[in-house]
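Example protein as discussed:

>
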Amino acid sequence: MMVRMHKTSLAIFVTLLSLTMVGEGMITVTLLWTSASMGQSPIFIGVVLFIMNMVPFLAQILFKPMRRAIEQHPLGMIIMPRMIGCVAASLAGMTLDASGLITLIAVAACLTFISFISQQCIETLMGQLTVTGMLDAGTSARLSQTALQSGVFVGNALAGILIAKSGTGWVFFGIAVSFASSLLLLFAAPWVRMGRESPAQTGAGHAAMPAQRHMSERTLWLLLAGMALLAVQLSGFNFFVPLIFESRSGTSAADYGLVSAAAGVGALLATFVRFSLRGYIGHAACGAVVIGDALVTQPVGMVLTSVFAFAIGFGFNISRIRIRQAIFERLTTKQESALWGGRVTVAFRGVSAGAPMLFGLLLMGQVPVAQSWVFAAIGVLTMGVAIPACLLFSTRTPVWR
């Protein structure tokens, strides 16, 4: 008989995950704003984003022991690397202001690598909880995003305020505290231990259904392509918004932190939308992202800018949750959960590494503020066309379990 997780246990587990994920939001705002301030050019921030994402991308491909450890001990692999990150962030807090460029790139590579491991562990853990019957696919997709987005929201706002008031050093100390709080996840360990799989969960029961499994496999690859397209949209936001804000007079790190936090609030609220309604509002949410992409970088005042950022975060996360839920529904074993969790993370990080470099090359020698139309075009192509088509196709294909 399958054991379901109690609501109180779920709430505590997600709260502890959210607490340590505050560091993710602080990393993003701090590194992107510092990159834009130091480099003053599109290609520089493109290089920083490339390094931030290429290091974990290569590590996932090259280090097989790490992949096995994530599959077998996802909770432990959240905690241990973050302890290393705690030390790295503390050292960055003491040296970054003085050392500049080289330290920034090294810190970006280290912290985003640790963040990458944590996010893949969450993907794997939620997939395994779904396969073992402790959570349904919709709840798994929603909770993984609730934990991430609530932490990112707090981290975005906190980092912007600290940079404006105290400088980057204190932000890195805050990241260290957030990473250290992952030790509290040890209290959640008894709730997420999974028992042995049944024969059906090991894949033995699928030998008689090759055609259905082939269809499910094709759909999974399509959904993986959808996640890669979402990475293009997110890369566009992370590239164009800090670059344009930093180059515009009268805009501070606190303003950028506020806009990022507004996007985080939108993403967080998307996790509370009822499953039965997500299909109906999915296309409207994609349209909201298209409009937000076109207007968030325009000089329309902070209130309207925050509204547009909220729309971007809400629509983006509605789409991401729907795609992740569709992936979870098609997984049948813990091994598949680890395999596709790794593929999703690699695809997302690989595109997140390449897209900013392409943006930087396209905008080299250009005035960033004058190129906001490029971000608008990204929104139209990804969220206006490709993602709706991907979601529509996935809903037309059956789920074989």
Summary: Residues 277 and 385 are 21 Å apart (CA to CA). The chain has one domain: 7-189+209-396.
